[in-house]
Structures are given as structure tokens and as C-alpha cells.
Amino acid sequence: MNANRPGLRELKKRRTRTAISEAAIELFLDHGFNQVSVARVAEAAEVSKRTLFAYFPAKEDLVVHRLADHETELARVVRARPSGTDPLTAVRDNFLRGLRERDPFTGLNDHPQTLRLLRMILDAPQLVARMERFKAGAERALTEALRDTADAPELTARLAAVQIVAVHWALADDNARRLAHGESADARREGAAADAEHAFALLENGLRTIGSTGQGHRSTTR
Amino acid sequence: MNANRPGLRELKKRRTRTAISEAAIELFLDHGFNQVSVARVAEAAEVSKRTLFAYFPAKEDLVVHRLADHETELARVVRARPSGTDPLTAVRDNFLRGLRERDPFTGLNDHPQTLRLLRMILDAPQLVARMERFKAGAERALTEALRDTADAPELTARLAAVQIVAVHWALADDNARRLAHGESADARREGAAADAEHAFALLENGLRTIGSTGQGHRSTTR
DNA sequence: GAATATTTCTGCACCTGGTATACATTTGCC
DNA sequence: GGCAAATGTATACCAGGTGCAGAAATATTC
Fold it and tell me: Can you tell me which residue has its alpha carbon closest to the C1' of nucleotide D8?
């Protein structure tokens, strides 16, 4: 009954939506997120401000709606894992594959366009904050995936989820910031993989090894 | 030269600041965060809107400035731990102590005033988002503490920090939401302690045990 | 294919958070 | 008491976002 077949109405809606989004991103990339008002975006997209807000509930959504898929990515990976594989392995393998393929969600993609977008986001605190909210969504989705497929009780699932998401995010964030500061993806490649291995090993084996003062794997003598 | 001795100026400043904050919190508690404009707060505090913003850079700060100390609490606990104790143990012990003492940062404080504040925050998405940013600050501070006191390399410190903060937060959040939904702190007490033990054990031992399909501690047979 | 119902778009007025400017007041200090 | 620096105020303004009433476009029914 709803959007089964395109239909002229649906078609125009989709067209308008992408028009607004593209106009917005172009302006934001050129002048910076905070330097462009939504009124100007609306004008560029030849739409009224009111209509713009009908499509995108807030200014930040003009940017982040593109990344919305990634919110549930981890959950999907966990759900789709081959049986017999534990969730953590599935996530790790997926991340390493992402690194090899320069998947943007690993932070290791330095195509100029991706890089510009990244810098634009990092320059706008509101956008960074909005990205943070993605973490919460990812945590929720992953919690459910773990609860459903790993036979873990609610709390365990949730705790595992927040840990995995936090580490995953930290890795991607680290890569992204390095690239944004000029490092090349090729140069970063090996380091990123090693870091990821290290990170997932830590996640798997726990923080037991993290230093009681003067007792770590490489202790200071004080 | 600056705030060494109170001095009339400093004194008035502090007085104004608390006056604004108290007026704000009272109004927010009574009518809800989003139902009260900053103009109304300024009026109630007998200050101009501009002055209000001189003291609190954003509306949310009128509420969250009180919680600002907790941002570095984990880092402080880690830094202040007795030598020979590993950071994770220090954090766990501190959390368990917090539970016993109903320290609000564990989420297990149901004094009516705390509860009202909590509900008010949970009802205002902007405030929740603002709290999220505390996590980022806590992560940064804890990263440094671990780097400095646990002889961990930067990345390891960061990874451990984000895991610890995530779990810590999840525990507190869980407690807080239960209380906000009517559970009593006394009733929640034991469960909270058990959950915390479980959570820190997981953190310590890693996610190795979390279910490859059909292989967990309590496997489903599908 | 015309009439009608429904959805979408628009223009406008309006609210709120936050800032710039220019001026008045207070405080610290001599 | 008098002067410089710091604070406070009033006012006007900007930008994000919403409510509303009606115009325009699309879907539907006969």
C-alpha cells in the first residue's frame, strides 16, 4: 500500500531528497558546515526551507544520513557469520577485510572526496557529536544481535557489544584522523592491520595483562 | 593575581553563578528542560541573558556543569591506586565501593532529588547527548592515566580506556534507568553488585567465552 | 476525463539558543 | 577620589526549527 511501486509521487520525493542532499554536501564541502545556512542549502536545491526540514529533521542529517547504514553493520556481520564462528572473530575478520579493501568504515580510505568529507565532519563539532550517537545505535543493534545469535544473556550481550563497538570505533577513528592529518592510506596500511590485530587480541584476552604498576610485560622500575 | 583570595569580585561571580544554576535547575525540574527557555532562567536569576551565557556557554551546561567532576574520576582512581594494584582492579573496587555508598555515579542513588534530576535528563535528548560527550572526555583522561601509570603504549592505553569507560558507563546507565523506572535502590543493590562483578570479570578475561554459535557456556542447539 | 480526496510544498510568522556591538556599572587599586 | 579593567546590560541580530493556512501537485473514483 505504501511505496510498493515507485509511482510518480515516490519518484519525485526521492529525486527531491537526493537533490537537497547533494546541494547540501557540495556547499558544505566548499565552505564548511557551519558557514552554510540551511536557508542557503534550500535555495540551492530550489526548495523551501520548510520542505528541506520535511526531508531532513535537522541540519546534521543532511550529512550523516549517508552513513546511516553503517549503524547496523556490526550487527549484520555478527548475525551473518558462519556457524561455528564466534562473534568476535567475525567482527575482526570483517574489519581486516575492510582495511584491505579500503572500506571507508575502517577510516582507511583516502580518496580525495572521502577525505574532504572527513575533514569537514571533524571540523564541525555538531557533526562529531552526531557521529557519537551512531555509536549508541550500533551498540543497541549489536546487543540484540549477540543476544539472538550468541545465546548470551542480556547484560552479557550488552557489555560485549559496548566493548566491541568502542574498540571498533577507536580503531576507525585513529585511522581516519591520521589520514585527515596527511598520512597516506598506503603508508598507514600495515600499521592499521597490526593495530587491529592487537586491539582484537586485547578484546579477546581481556585487560588482565594491563599493568599493575611495575608488573606489566615491560615494567618501569619505580 | 587571579582568584588567589576571594575578593569581592570573585565572590560576586561565584554567587551569581550559583544563583543562575539553581534557578535553572529548579525551573527545569519543575517544568522540564525543553519547556523552559534560557530567557526565563535569566529572568528568574535576575540576570541578563547575555550574562547567563557568559557563565554557561550553552543551555545544557546549566545542568551538566555539576557532573563535570566525574569526567576525570576514573582517571583519578587509576592514578591514585596503591602500587601493585592493576588499574582494572582499582576501577572495580571503586565501583563496588560506590555501589555500597550509593554514589550517584554508579547510578544507584534513589534520593528523590537525584531521581528527579535523572528523569529530567533522560527526558531531554540534548542532555543525554551531552552526557555522551562526557564519555569522550573520560576516555581521554583515562587513556593518559593508563599511559602514565601502567606503562602501556599509547594505543593499548586508549583501547583499554575505551573498554573500561564503556563498561563502566553501561553499568551505571543500567542502574540509573532501572531506578528511573521505579525500581528501588535497595532492591537493586545486590543485583547491581553481581552485575558489576560479572562485567569486570568479562573485561578482565576477555570476550573469548562469548558464543560461537552453539558453543557457548549454555549453547542452543540450532 | 472531470471531480474529489490526499499528499506535498510553500510562504509567512514565530520561537529559541546564541552572538555582536556599544554602552553603563562595578570593582580593584593607587 | 579617580582611573583602568572587568562585568553587566540593552538591543538588535542571526540561524535552526516549528506551526499554520493555503496553494499546487498527485492519486483515486466515478
Answer: B51
